[in-house]
Write a structure and sequence with these properties.
The chain is an alpha+beta fold. It has helices at residues 9-16, 21-28, 34-50, 62-76, 84-102, 125-130, 132-143, 148-156, 161-169, 176-190, 210-213, 219-225, 288-293, and strands spanning 200-203, 230-232, 237-240, 245-247, 250-255, 260-264, 268-271, 274-277, 280-282, 285-286, 305-308, 313-320, 326-327, 330-331, 336-342. It folds into 3 domains: 4-76, no CATH class; 84-190, no CATH class; 200-342, no CATH class. It contains 13 helices and 15 strands. The protein starts with 8 loop residues before the first helix and ends with a strand.
């Protein structure tokens, strides 16, 4: 009787195509030479399903990226026949509803009626894309090497974590097209992205803090997780350079209402980046629009930033008490969590 060991490479690849990414990872360790075949099958499947052109994304982590795609499909289903454009009205209305709930004192500024975002509505997609800010953002991304379609999709669905993160946690397919699109953009960009040489910082608390979009970032839960512990995010994360620290009180942001700098009273996350390997990508992705906006008169209000996609694996590497760590020579009086990231 023939066994798998007796099959030639082509037949083995046919057999491996029926396996999940996790099953292929186990198979890759079973016999010398099978690892290369598993990588070949993972690359083939990912190129087909992510629509990667030949030559794009010569990654070291094809299998990890395939596993990430399969996890997304497990949570919200496969890429639906509808597109992110079809989901845009419901996405924006849901984001506004959730922000209004979080900002009850100023809820009137949020437009929660889905009809406002449908064709002909005051905030319709076509109208949004004609706004100077949106056009600048898309142009900056295209100039940085993004595909035009990716630049448009990313900008139109950006800052909508409060709407789509619950879909991941609750295994709903309501915004499946948006999630597949944004995770696909992250995968396509990460293969060519430069690895930041400095630590990048994110804020945990506050209206726009990491914990507001995903409770796994809450200080108590991270302390419970402990050094060496890991968790998976359901929302995207934004992080900035250390230049945002202007004094020892913490990270600062520009308050548009008062036209002055204010300190963000929050525990802090520092992301330690590293080059990609077979276990995934380990560095946030640069957002070109913020760099372009810094060339204008209001540059000081818009820090250069990076983003980490949803379903990233976060590992806590260090925890420092307030006053026990420094950035830019400042001994910051906020708790610090140093983390590494991994995504596919």
């Amino acid at each position: 009787m023939l066994s798998l060991c007796d099959l030639d490479d082509e037949l083995l690849c046919c057999a491996f195509r029926s396996l999940s990414a996790h099953e292929m990872a186990r198979v890759a360790c079973a016999r010398a030479g099978w690892g290369a075949l598993v990588t070949r099958v993972a690359e083939e499947q990912l190129r087909l399903r992510r629509k990667l052109p030949t030559g794009q994304g010569a990654w070291p982590c094809w299998l990890r990226s395939l596993a990430a795609l399969q996890l997304l499909e497990c949570l919200v289903g496969p890429m639906p026949t509808r597109t992110w454009r079809d989901e845009f009205p419901a996405l924006r209305a849901e984001e506004s509803r959730r922000r209004a709930q979080l900002n009850a004192d100023d809820a009137s500024q949020y437009f929660t009626d889905e009809s406002d975002y449908m064709p002909g509505g005051v905030f319709a997609l076509d109208s949004f894309l004609q706004e100077d800010y949106a056009k600048d953002a898309v142009q900056a991304k295209v100039a940085a090497g993004w595909a035009a379609a990716d630049a448009v999709a990313f900008e139109a669905t950006n800052e909508s974590d409060l709407a789509f993160a619950p879909s991941l946690r609750e295994r709903q397919d309501r915004f499946a097209a948006t999630l597949h699109t944004r995770c696909g953009i992250a995968s396509r960009l990460a293969g060519d992205a430069a690895v930041p040489q400095e630590r990048l910082f994110g804020m945990i608390d506050g209206v726009d803090g990491l914990a507001h979009g995903d409770a796994v970032w809450a200080v108590g839960r991270m302390l419970e997780c402990g050094v060496g512990g890991s968790f998976t995010t359901s929302c995207e994360c934004s992080c900035v350079q250390g230049t945002q620290f202007r004094d020892e009180a913490g990270c600062s942001f520009f308050d548009h209402d008062t036209q002055s700098w204010r300190c963000w009273d929050s525990a802090i996350v520092a992301v330690r980046s590293s080059p990609p390997d077979s276990s995934g990508f380990h560095a946030p992705i640069f957002d070109p629009v913020t760099q372009q906006r810094r060339t204008r008169a209001y540059a000081v209000q818009n820090p250069v930033s990076w983003w980490v996609p949803a379903l990233s694996r976060i590992t806590i590497e260090e925890v420092h008490a307030p006053g026990e760590w420094q950035v830019r020579g400042l001994r910051v009086r906020q708790r610090l969590f140093v983390v590494s990231i991994s995504f596919g």
